[in-house]
Design a protein that fits this description.
This protein is α+β, with helices and mostly antiparallel strands. The protein is built from seven helices and 31 strands.
């Protein structure tokens, strides 16, 4: 036999084998429960809207029969399955179980909103004492010599020589020795008090009966010396500030709170502070005040946090991270935050009405805290919301143009409608990156009512095929191309470790 004849025979046999394999695959697909259930004639009182080919779902037929596109029976579309107007979808309970769709009940409760903020540690300005001299004098000895030195209550600060005190004491002692001059002696004692002498020092002068011109000023509280304004040998004037002492048993942390969250903060709210120096320790505190000004640059409100400081670990100037607990909200319907779908202009949840039945519900969310969100409007206690598996529900609803497009834009008559997007998972059975071709054995695709089957797809973006090999599990998104006789083109492709199929 000549070479051209041999080649012709091989081509004919190959084509026959391909057609036979395709028909065999279609026959096997028709035997699967999913396909046979769709191909079966309508039963009971269920109303049929139209018939369609799952491979070309956009084409509708008014009676059953064989598809003009594929070697398979048309599938009925029932009225109770069409939830486009209400955003409803129906999914097989077996598929729901296989895909791990989780639901939770909406409950009644109240939330304590928590927010994160940053701040810096500073002095407690309500625990500051200023030591001054009321008269002129001389500094003879300085006991506290450096700023920020710790000081205990009653510890000596400075020894002063005060000539004016000496003269007033002489007068006081003289009047004490004169009979019948008690009133004048009391007036002299009052003068010593006005000059700044303590009652203990006056009692000492009265007890010893001699003038004491050198006095020691002592600290009125325990803390640190925040300001030191005196040195040995100095002459001091009346009213001069000698020391500024701050009690560090409590400190203030000034926090920057976003303006939008400031309304939930009230004085007395609980706060937990952490600093990098002691990362394993939590410093509890309370909101002391919400300061009446807003930072125009950062749009934040300053909150003054009062924090106990055991062991004086918190130092002024330290950076702190804060967890603030706002005022407890009123009782409302609560759902897990993961159930909420935010589209930008509105918020939705997926409700599980009954087994296999799902629908979208618009809600008005409120406060969010601790993984839960308050629902002000749209739900009631006991409603079941979907927490996971929205991918599958969205795939089922995309054909019905309801749930898949949570916000359906108005059609632009100047632009042609885009084919529906369908999602699925499958195992790679063949791949040719240079040709942009991928062959998959895919799981049932709910949005097209496709059963499990093996077929080829075009992949315009050849980069998606890089690194793929036979046996890999993938998630994909595809669109039908009606003008090309029902071809489906994969637009997105992602390799996954999820086990597919039975």
């Amino acid at each position: 036999m000549k070479a051209p004849a041999v080649i012709a025979v091989v081509v004919v046999l190959t084509a026959a084998a391909g057609v036979g394999g395709y028909r065999y695959a279609m026959h096997r697909m028709a035997q699967t429960p999913s396909a046979s259930s769709h191909a079966a004639a309508p039963s009971g009182d269920r109303k049929v809207l139209y018939w369609y080919d799952p491979m070309v779902p956009q084409q509708k037929f008014d009676k059953p029969g064989k598809s003009p596109f594929m070697d398979m029976q048309l599938v009925p579309k029932y009225a109770d399955e069409d939830g486009a107007a209400e955003g409803k979808v129906s999914i097989s309970p077996q598929v729901v179980q296989n895909l791990g769709i989780r639901t939770a009940e909406a409950t009644l409760g109240s939330l304590e909103p928590k927010m994160e903020a940053v701040g810096s540690v500073g002095w407690n300005e309500r625990a500051v004492a200023v030591v001054q001299s009321r008269t002129a004098g001389f500094v003879e000895k300085l006991h506290a010599r450096a700023p920020l030195d710790p000081i205990a209550k009653g510890a000596p600060l400075v020894d002063l020589f005060n000539p004016e005190w000496a003269g007033a004491q002489e007068e006081f002692l003289f009047l004490l020795r004169q009979p019948g001059s008690k009133a004048l002696a009391d007036a002299a004692r009052q003068r010593l008090l006005l000059l700044g002498m303590s009652t203990e020092d006056i009692a000492r002068v009265e007890r010893e009966g001699k003038v004491v011109a050198r006095f020691t000023l002592r600290s009125p509280l325990s803390g640190v010396i925040a300001e030191l304004g005196v040195r040995e040998g100095m002459t001091i004037a009346p009213g001069a500030t000698l020391f500024r002492i701050v009690d560090l048993s409590t400190v203030w942390i000034t926090a920057e709170v976003p303006e939008a969250q400031a309304a939930s903060l009230v004085p007395g709210s609980r706060v937990e502070a952490r600093v990098p120096a002691f990362s394993d320790q939590v410093f509890p505190g309370r909101v002391g005040a919400i300061l009446p000004d807003v930072n125009a640059t950062t749009r934040t409100v300053r909150a003054r946090i009062e924090v106990a400081n055991p062991g004086q670990r918190l130092k002024p100037g330290m950076f702190a991270t804060l967890t603030l607990t706002g005022a407890r909200a009123q009782q409302a319907v609560l759902v897990p935050s993961e159930a909420l779908i935010r589209t930008g202009e509105r918020s939705l949840v997926i409700l599980a009405d009954r087994e296999g039945k799902f629908r979208q519900q618009e809600v008005e969310p409120g406060v969010e805290a601790g993984g839960s969100t308050e629902i002000r409007k749209g739900l009631k206690a006991g409603d079941k919301v979907v927490l996971s598996g929205q991918f599958l529900i969205d795939s089922e609803a995309s054909l019905r143009s309801g749930l898949a497009r949570l916000e359906t834009p108005k059609a632009d008559p100047a632009k042609p409608a885009s084919p529906a997007l369908h999602k699925g998972t499958g195992v790679v059975t063949g791949v040719s990156a240079p040709d942009g071709y991928l062959e998959l054995k895919h799981d049932p695709i709910a949005s097209l009512n496709w059963p499990v089957m093996q077929m080829g797809f075009k992949v315009p973006d050849k980069k998606l095929l890089e690194g793929l090999k036979k046996g890999d599990t993938v998630e994909f998104e595809m669109r039908g191309v009606p003008e090309k006789d029902g071809d489906f083109v994969i637009e997105r492709l992602k390799k996954t470790t999820q086990k597919t199929g039975p």
